[in-house]
C-alpha cells in the first residue's frame, strides 16, 4: 500500500477522533462510561479532551507527513503504528489491573490502524 494513502487514512481517523473527544468529551464519556459518578464527570471530561488533543496531534503528524519520500514516510508509519499499539496495550493493562472493562470497538479500530501502518511501512 502506498504510504501516502495509509498516512491519509490514519491522519483523518485520528484527527476525527481527536475533534470529537475535544468537542464533546462529556457525551463520549456518557457513551463509554454510563455509570460514571457525577463527581467524576468534569475531571473525566478533562482527561478525555486531553486524549483528544493527543489524537488530533498525531492525526496532524500523519496528514503533514503524507508527501514525504517513502523511506521517511515508512519511519513515520512505524512510529505511529507502534504508538497506537502501545495505546491498545495500555488499555489491556488497565483491564488486567482491574480498572474497568475493555472498550472493544475503539480497540478494534486502533488495531486496524496499527496493521495499516505496519503493512504500508513494510510492504
Percent helix: over 70%
Mean pLDDT: 96
Quantity of strands, as a count: 0
Class per helix and strand makeup: mainly alpha
Major β-sheet annotation = none
Task: Write down the Rg.
Answer: 15 Å
In what range is the share of β-strand residues? Answer: under 5%
List unreliable stretches of 5+ residues: none
Q: Sketch the topology as an H/E string, one letter per element.
A: HHHHH
* Whole-number total of structural domains: 1
N-end to C-end Cα span: 7 Å
Shape: elongated
Number of helices: 5
Layout: helices, strands, pairs:
Elements: H1 3-23, H2 25-32, H3 41-64, H4 70-96, H5 104-122
Helix pairs in contact: 1-3, 1-4, 1-5, 2-3, 4-5
What would your notes on this structure say?
This protein has one domain (3-122). Helix 1 packs antiparallel against helix 3 (41-64) and helix 1 (3-23) packs across helix 4 (70-96). It is 80% helix and 0% strand. It is elongated. 24% of the residues are buried. It has five helices and no strands. It starts with a helix and ends with a helix. By secondary structure, it is mainly α.
Short structural summary:
This protein has 123 residues and is mainly α. The chain has five helices and no strands. Helix 1 runs antiparallel to helix 3 (41-64).
